[in-house]
Structure formats: C-alpha cells, structure tokens
Specification:
Blueprint lengths: L5 E7 L3 E8 L5 E8 L8 H16 L6 E6 L3 H8 L5 E7 L1 H10 L5 E4 L2 E3 L1 E7 L3 H14 L4 E6 L7 H12 L4 E3 L9 H13 L1 H17 L6 E4 L5 E3 H6 L7 H12 L6 E6 L4 E7 L2 E2 L1 E6 L2 E8 L1 E4 L5 E6 L2 E9 L20 E5 L9 E5 L5 E3 L2 H7 L13 H14 L6 H27 L8 E4 L3 H12 L3 E3 L6 H8 L13
Parallel strand pairs: 1-4, 4-11, 5-8, 5-9, 9-10, 13-24, 24-25
Antiparallel strand pairs: 1-2, 2-3, 6-7, 11-12, 13-14, 14-15, 14-18, 16-17, 19-20, 21-22, 22-23
Helix pairs in contact: 1-7, 4-5, 9-14, 10-11, 10-12, 11-12, 12-13
C-alpha cells in the first residue's frame, strides 16, 4: 500500500499556536492540535511550534517521513515594527559625479516613524564609487561604532548591476553585521523608496535570523526532513534562507494565511472574508477568485513591498467591554487575552453568584473603563464580546466559541445592576453585539466602496475561532447573507498548509 503524504501548516497566533495536517492528494484535513503560544519561552514562539508539531504527529500517528511539506506563519516581523523592536541601520551609499550627489541625498532617509513613540534610526556614510575597496571597511566600522546593528548598501542602478552593493554587504558580514543590498529587496527603480524598504528589512534581520534558526532546529528535532517554509505577506511561502535575507516579506504573514485558506480550502470566489480571532479581526475582499493586493506603507511612507490588502481592526471574540454614561461605550481594543483574564462565559455560574463589578485599566496606559467581574475569593474574569453572543443564545452548541450561557447571562445581569438597569442584562448584551457589528460593518463598507465591488461580493464568510460571534451580527447590520467556513478555528493553519511556493519579481522595462 502506498504511503500517504501530508502537508503540515502551523499558525502562530497571539494566544494559541494551531497545527494541522492536510492530505497532500485530496486536501482533506487529517488532524489538528493547538497549544499556547510560547511568547516568554527562552526559544520564543519556536518552542510552541515544536510542541504543536510533536503533538500533531503523536495524535495522528503519522510518521515524520510522511511529511512532504511544512510551513508556518509568523507575526514576528509585524510585531517588531509595531513595538519598535528594531536595530539601528547604517546606510552605506556609493556613486560618483552628479549621479553620486543624487545618491547621497536620496539614500539619506533619516529616521523612519513606526507608529506611536517608535521610530527606526538610520545612520549614513557615502563612499566614492572608485574608492569602495579602500574605504568600505572604514565606513562600516564607523557605522558600527555609532550603534548600527545592521547595514544597507545603496547604489543608484544596482537593480541592473548589483556588484558594488554586493561588495559592501560582503564587507559588512565580515564585520558581523547583518546586511542587505537594495537590489535584494526590489527590482524597481527609485532609490529612495528602495533604500527605505531595505532599511526596514535590515532593521528586523537580527531577531528574525535568530528566530528562524530556532524554529528550523525545532522542526528538525521532530525528525521531519522536509524543508521548513514561512508564509509570505502575498499569500505564498518561502524557504528559511530567504527569510534570513528578506524577513520584511513576512509582514502580514498571519492574515495572508487566512486569505490563502479562503481561496484554496473554502473555494471562495466572491465575498468578504472575516477571520475573527481573540484580539483582532482581519477583513479582506475576494473578487472573481482573486484577493486584492496593495503597496505596503510604514509611517506613511510607501514601500516596494506587495501585500494582500487585509484590513485589521482591534476587535475579536475576547474584546473587553468599556462602560461610559451607564451603558456600553465601546468593545475593545483591549482583549481578555492581553489582559490575562478568562472570559466570564467560560466560568461557572456559581463563581459569579456574589461577584462584584469593577472598572479597571487592563494595562498601563489604558483608560480605566474596562469591565471586570470579581468573585468574593478574588478571582477575576472579563465580560467580552463572546460573552454577549453566549448570553443572547446566538451560538450553536457545537460552535467553537460556545460557552456557559448561564454564566454569560449572570455576567450581564451584574452589569445591568451596576448601571442601575436591573433586569436589562439581555438588552445590554444586545447593545454590545450591535456596537461590535457596526465597527466591523464600517470597515467592510469602506473596502467594498474602494474597490467598487458589486452585490455578489457583499456576502460575508466567517473564519477564526470567534467567527460565529461577530460575522452573523455584522451581516445583519449590513443586510447581507453570511456563512461560517468549515474548520473555522484552524482556518489560518490550513491556509499555511495549502500555500504555494512563490517568488514575485517587479522590474522597470525601458522602452
């Protein structure tokens, strides 16, 4: 009997790491597991990836030799840029004459804002093209002394002749600096944008190289010989060697996995796909069997990087409820997962019998108007969007997000008493669900308007563990139909398993 072959996909989420095995021939889901994402482990999320793969092989009984493809999504590049966890980047530019003057000014890009109080610091050195061999080492040493943790080589027409950039990056690596040439990032003309994109890529190379090595080691330790792939932001996958050189291509890796599953597993041809997780929801438009793409931007600056057009909002099944004026004011963006609190609807009704309600700031800097329930023994739980759906009986018993409806109703009963509206817990739960639906509906409407999508594209397809919580209410707010996709809670991991190896090259062609 011929051996069955399997494709393994691992989706590293904010709360859980999901792993699935898909039959290579039929595309049938053959197994699935989840483990907590190991953010604080010494090996980082790599430990969770290894645990998930190990449990998947154990529960399914598959031999490591039967795994012919393995890939994972990652949020590390995105998180590094959002949190400012980036290395200062030294830029070594080269040129001569008038062209050299232009190179010097176009490659001096300054600090790049990353959002909030974070920015990427860049340092600059210029070398005359005829003196690269003599001056490269000294220029890079000066950048290192000034604090550069990575290096970019910039030459005006390196997309046609990358030799000078290669000389500079080789010297940087000799001196222990991760380095990238602008030609490695894009084949398009436009030195300033190419340099900016390369600088962002270089800034996340140190942590990404380390994480890639740890994850690769963990997969090999499971006995899997198939090369490990990583999800790209355009829906394809690439090898670990490419991740070490171009980690920026993994931005939006997680959302791209969900879109890949919508196309290849759900077979969605027209509609809006909403992947609803615990903390956020990713929304994308699919028309005529294709997902829309766009040029990425960071800090308001355009990059030479194509990504799937996925709109992410701070709203998920675990979104906590904010109170103002005696009524629900907002849902999210803080989630119970980030606040390290359990959902009220997954606890016992008995624990809430004499509980009280408090308004707190879940994290430092948050407004102190998030609702928390506290039992007499000090145990706390959050009143969430999922609790509202459970309290209203909106979820089927077999829905992934289904919980203890009595606990959810008790929680909203406490909220009604706190607001001076006894007996109106159901009305408050309905108000919470309506607030969330309006927020999601506004993003869907904007997406449809921007692309001029027709009526056939307005149907909503829900994925993610909390798809059944948010999508039906959003569809009702929009006056359209919906369906929840099969295996919704592991849909991103399935997308990773089914993804295709991809390389995209954009070039300017001179007429």
């Amino acid at each position: 009997m011929a051996q069955m072959n399997y494709r393994i996909g691992v989706d590293v989420g904010g709360t859980f790491t999901h792993a699935v095995a898909v039959d290579s021939g039929s595309g049938r889901l053959a197994g699935k597991v989840k483990v907590p994402t190991t953010h604080t482990a010494a090996e980082g999320v790599a430990r969770g990836v290894a645990q998930a793969i190990g449990e998947l092989l154990e529960t399914t009984g598959f031999s490591p030799a039967s795994v012919t493809f393995i890939a994972h999504s990652t949020t590390q590049a995105t998180n590094a840029l959002l949190e400012g966890d980036v290395a200062p980047v030294g830029i070594v530019a080269t040129g001569k004459g008038l062209e050299g003057w232009r190179v010097k000014h176009q490659s001096r890009i300054g600090d790049i804002p990353l959002g909030g109080d974070h920015s990427l610091k860049t340092l600059h050195q210029f070398i005359h093209r005829n003196a690269i061999e003599q001056q490269a080492a000294g220029a890079i040493q000066r950048l290192k002394a000034a604090g550069a943790g990575a290096m970019v080589a910039a030459d005006a027409f390196s997309v046609d002749d990358p030799s000078r950039e290669k000389t500079l990056t080789q010297e940087a690596r000799k001196q222990g600096l991760p380095a990238t040439g602008t030609h490695e990032i894009s084949g398009l003309y436009g030195l300033r944008v190419r340099t900016r994109t390369a600088a962002l890529n270089a800034s996340i190379m140190p942590p990404m190289i380390e994480a890639a090595s740890m994850t690769e080691t963990s997969v090999k330790s499971a006995g899997i010989s198939a090369p490990l792939m990583v999800m790209r932001s355009d829906g394809g996958v690439m090898k670990m060697e490419e991740v070490r050189k171009r980690p920026l291509l993994t931005i939006l890796s997680g959302p791209a996995a969900g879109v890949a599953a919508a196309l290849m597993f759900v077979r969605l041809s027209d509609g809006v796909f909403l992947e609803v997780g615990g903390t956020s929801t990713d929304i994308s438009l699919i028309s005529m069997g294709r997902a829309h793409t766009q040029s990425a931007q960071v800090g308001g600056h355009r990059l030479f990087l194509r990504t799937l057009d996925v709109r992410t909002i701070g709203l998920g099944g675990g979104s906590m409820i904010r109170l103002g004026g005696g009524k629900p004011l907002e849902v999210g963006p803080r989630s119970a997962h980030i606040a390290n609190l359990p959902y009220c609807c997954y606890g016992s009704t008995e624990a809430l019998r004499e509980a009280g309600l408090r308004l707190v700031a879940p994290r430092e800097g948050d407004p102190a108007d998030y609702i928390v329930l506290e039992a007499p023994d000090g145990r706390k739980s959050a009143l969430t969007l999922t609790c509202a759906a459970n309290a209203l009986g909106k979820l089927a018993d077999d829905d992934y997000a289904s919980g203890n409806r009595q606990s959810a109703r008790a929680g909203f009963g406490l909220l009604a008493d706190f607001c001076g509206r006894p007996g109106e817990g159901e009305a408050l739960a309905q108000a919470v669900l309506a607030l969330a639906a309006r927020k999601a509906a506004a993003t869907v409407e904007k997406l449809l308007l921007e692309y001029g999508a027709g009526a056939e594209s307005t149907r909503l397809i829900g994925g993610g563990g909390a798809g059944g919580v948010l999508v039906p209410a959003t569809a009702e707010a929009l006056g359209t139909s919906y369906r929840i996709c099969p295996e919704a809670e592991v849909i991103s991991a399935i997308g990773v398993a089914l993804a295709l190896v991809r390389e995209t090259i954009e070039r300017n062609i001179i007429d």
